[in-house]
User: Which sequence fits this backbone?
């Protein structure tokens, strides 16, 4: 009885650990999705070659919006680790493992660019307002479009798009969740780069798509009772 009782206790602890991991994963996904929706909704939009644009980019709303996106990127790789655990033992583990790698690399390459956007362009905008000289804002294009930061950003975005596709494949192949549950997440991630070239309404709409895609995936991965 002692032996079997010990095995049962270990199994209960293991199940508790899995449940805790799943809860963390769903929370990370849900919070990240909301933050990605806040980002374009809170971000001010204006002609960024003018002093009006400088006012927008020097604002606390500019900083807060971009910080929200950065936190979302930080939460994504751990969520992919949780996904891999959720599909462990199924045909979905392979693509889920690949999604972990692309998520870490993609977020790692993207975050420095967002740091430049958040703090570098903000500082330039403050200087432009102090001088009342919009020509100072030409430096913003160097921060965004110089070869190294642009390469980092482009590569990061492509890796994050791959993360979305790999996640959808992992969910479908696992057989443990609704086959379509990863599709909205994948579509949102693939459209992350193209949405930057659209109007403000399109960008806000994409933020809502991010929240929906992340939310659906979180719902699919949510902990279930043993009797469910």
Assistant:
């Amino acid at each position: 009885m002692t032996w079997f009782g010990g095995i049962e206790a270990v199994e209960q602890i293991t199940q508790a650990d899995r449940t805790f991991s799943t809860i963390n994963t769903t929370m990370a996904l849900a919070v990240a999705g909301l933050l990605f929706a806040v980002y374009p909704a809170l971000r001010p939009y204006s002609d960024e070659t003018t002093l009006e644009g400088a006012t927008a980019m020097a604002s606390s709303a500019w900083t807060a919006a971009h910080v929200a996106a950065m936190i979302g990127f930080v939460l994504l790789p751990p969520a992919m680790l949780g996904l891999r655990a959720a599909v462990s033992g199924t045909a979905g583990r392979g693509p889920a493992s690949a999604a972990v790698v692309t998520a870490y690399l993609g977020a790692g390459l993207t975050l420095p660019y967002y740091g430049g956007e958040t703090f570098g362009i903000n500082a330039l905008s403050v200087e432009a307002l102090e001088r009342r000289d919009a020509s100072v804002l030409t430096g913003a294009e160097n921060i965004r479009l110089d070869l190294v930061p642009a390469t980092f950003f482009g590569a990061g975005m492509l890796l994050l798009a791959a993360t979305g596709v790999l996640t959808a494949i992992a969910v479908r192949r696992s057989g443990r969740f609704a086959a379509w549950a990863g599709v909205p997440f994948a579509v949102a991630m693939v459209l992350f780069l193209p949405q930057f070239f659209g109007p403000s309404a399109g960008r806000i709409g994409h933020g809502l798509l991010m929240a929906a895609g992340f939310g659906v995936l979180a719902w699919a991965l949510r902990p279930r009772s043993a009797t469910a």
